[in-house]
Amino acid sequence: MPEPLITIEGLYKVFGSKPDSVMPMVHEGRSKDDILAETGHTLGLKDINLTINKGEIFVIMGLSGSGKSTLIRHFNRLIDPTEGVIKVEDTDVMKLPPKELEHFRRHKMSMVFQRFGLMPHRTVLENVGYGLSIQGQSKAVWSAKAKEWLETVGLAGYEAQYPAQLSGGQQQRVGLARALCTDAEILLMDEAFSALDPLIRSEMQDQLIELQDTLHKTIIFITHDLDEALRIGDRIAILKDGEMVQQGTPDEILLNPANDYVEAFVKDVNRARALTVETVMKPPSRRITADTIGEALIQMKAIKGDYGYYVNDDGYQGVVTQDTLEACCDDASTSQEMDDTVWEDLPSISPDAMLESVIPETLDADYSLPVVDEEGNLKGELSKSNLAEVLGGADKKTEERI
Amino acid sequence: MAESSWLTKFPQMDRVDLLEIRKGLDSAYREFSREYGEVIESLFDPLLTFLVWFEKLLLTTPWFIVIVAVAGLVYLVSRSWKLSLGVVVSFLAIGYFGMWDNTMRTLSIITVCTLMAIGLGIPIGIVMARSDKARSVITPMLDIMQTMPAFVYLIPVVMLLGIGKIPGVIAVIIYAIPPVIRLTNLGIRLVDSEVMEAATAYGANPTQRLFGVQLPLAMPTIMAGINQTIMMALSMVVIASMIGVKGLGQPVLKSITNQYFTLGLFNGLAIVALAIIFDRVSQAYAKRTQRHMQGIENA
Ligand SMILES: Nc1ncnc2c1ncn2[C@@H]1O[C@H](COP(=O)(O)OP(=O)(O)O)[C@@H](O)[C@H]1O
Ligand SMILES: [Mg+2]
């Protein structure tokens, strides 16, 4: 059961000298360009509503200038909203007086920045321990802890270096270690990996996922890259010109783009790499559970096909075809028990497998492939046309999805 | 004809009125200085005491101890043998050519002026960096201070405080303080916004941000400002000598009125030597403390 941790309600942000004077226009629904042309104010965010659950990686995605950085800076109030409510658990962040806001920032959230935001005049160790030293912890405490986190991110031995002496990837590891060092529950990451080379970037993504498996933080992750969003996000929200256009799980976004903007995003994604079998399979309609060949023939008629997946108490066994069943009947009684002479082996695929990994098997097989989970339960089936539909063109075929 | 004379001649204010205004302002200020001059002067007494003490210290300490102390200080700050050696050689030459006492006087007043300019300028620069309003008020004032001929603001200072060390120090500071203010402001404003955001995001309070992030990162720029301030203070030595500040400026002034070219040249060179020493030392210091900015290898 997801437990909401952060709630944002009706959040608006207008940049400019007199934001309040522009709010009526915003509420009237005038466009960002209109407002800029008429008043010189920039509409940064418009009516954002979000709930982020404990322990999830929530990705906020959008093109450059869509308001991602503006939005994430509201969580720790690096930016104050023009209107709206930001709640973390039961704390109304907007109502915190300065001292309590500092306390909140020190203990509740930490942040990783696109250009790392490291302090060039402090050593790597001092950078990692910065959060704790700001809290007034003794040097012995923060340096020991910082050392541990440096080891965790794979930078043991770099303690005495300055940030300028490290590569981009290493610097961002320092940024990550600094964020983890305060043990804050919430991690804000503003395009944390966008400035890195593709190879380093995917390494960092892996590392983040791995860390998250043990740490179970609540992570708000900003990116402009859908592949990255799909790879690490539990849920994804898409921003356009300061407005939320869609929120949902990666599969929902991929298969059900809310509008052309999202669709344009989704179009270039390698779906085979982003979707699992489970999300595209059809429900199982060819289940044969009969004990005898006669019953099996009756079930076969009912499913209106010439083959079925045989499932008994031990789970999925193989494929049976009408032809073999009928062949059996000629020289034996229809009350003959089903046995392994009747069914043929047909490899099954796992519901969690990425589509990419099952393409060859699906194309090679004469039948649709059965989708079977670890316990042997038949969960669904995947046909060639199924695959072709999902991986094919950009036109919507989402209606067929259950 | 007479009606169109405003075309060729600027329609100026009535001479009598103008005179009245000047007289009025002058006498008002004279009144003010007669009334409050002594009070204001007494405010500066501690500074005067310190100035006198410091000058005396430099003048009464045996010359070789001064040289050793200055060279040692230069080494501590710059960690450069060459620079320290240069200091020893130039001081020996200055003494040999009979300019020791004046050099000590100038050294003492420049040191005090510089310290005061830094002590006042950096906080003002910080205020200016924190608020755009403060900046819009202070910037035009700095512009005036830097372009108004020094003689003009010498007049009210002398009227108020008379002739001597204190008005000299004030004049030098007014002239020399703008760079350190401007560059402190600039340096703080140029601090990478993401680094500042990081400090804020981790819960640093304004003091922690100022001393832990802004000032250290602005330091190279502030040092450039301090360097310029020192140079400008030294260039005021001659003008300050016109209102009674003793030192290398006075012989220069004397040589202008009496056309002693060599005397002027020697004392001028002594000022240049001081300037070069101050400049190189402050730059070496700045460079030494900012090595990590470029990475240690190539420093
Ligand atoms: N401080 C600011 N003043 C005025 N406009 C701003 C400011 N910060 C951001 N904006 C505007 O808000 C919009 C969203 O910016 P941003 O949140 O940085 O986008 P993203 O991070 O998605 O690239 C842009 O149009 C940008 O110009
Ligand atoms: Mg951004």
Secondary-structure map with pairings?
The complex is a heterodimer of chains A (402) and B (299).
Chain A: E1 4-15, H1 19-28, H2 32-39, E2 42-53, E3 57-61, H3 68-75, E4 83-88, E5 91-92, H4 98-107, E6 109-112, H5 124-128, H6 130-134, H7 139-152, H8 168-181, E7 186-190, H9 198-215, E8 218-223, H10 226-232, E9 235-240, E10 243-248, H11 250-255, H12 260-267, H13 271-274, H14 277-280, E11 287-288, H15 293-302, E12 307-312, E13 315-321, H16 322-331, H17 355-364, E14 369-372, E15 378-382, H18 384-391
Parallel strand pairs in A: 3-8, 3-9, 6-7, 7-8, 11-12
Antiparallel strand pairs in A: 1-2, 1-4, 4-5, 9-10, 12-13, 14-15
Chain B: H1 5-8, H2 15-43, H3 45-60, H4 63-78, H5 81-96, H6 100-130, H7 132-147, H8 150-161, H9 165-189, H10 193-201, H11 206-235, H12 237-241, H13 249-258, H14 261-289
Helix pairs in contact in B: 2-8, 3-6, 4-5, 5-14, 6-7, 6-9, 6-11, 7-9, 8-9, 9-11, 10-11, 11-14, 13-14
Written description of the protein model:
The complex is a heterodimer of chains A (402) and B (299). Chain A contains 18 helices and 15 strands. Chain A has helices at residues 19-28, 32-39, 68-75, 98-107, 124-128, 130-134, 139-152, 168-181, 198-215, 226-232, 250-255, 260-267, 271-274, 277-280, 293-302, 322-331, 355-364, 384-391, and strands at 4-15, 42-53, 57-61, 83-88, 91-92, 109-112, 186-190, 218-223, 235-240, 243-248, 287-288, 307-312, 315-321, 369-372, 378-382. Chain A has a six-stranded mixed β-sheet, sandwiched between helices. The longest helix of chain A is centred in the middle third of the chain and has 18 residues, at 198-215. Chain B has 299 residues and is mainly alpha-helical. Chain B has one domain: MetI-like (MetI-like fold), CATH 1.10.3720. The longest helix of chain B has 31 residues, at 100-130. Chain B is globular and about 75 Å long. Chain B starts with a helix and ends in a 10-residue tail after the last helix. Chain A binds chain B through residues 73, 76, 78, 102-107, 109-111, 113-121, 130-131, 134-135, 162, 164-165, 178, 182, 188, and chain B through 192, 194-195, 197-205, 208, 212-213, 216-217, 292-297. The complex binds adenosine-5'-diphosphate and magnesium ion.
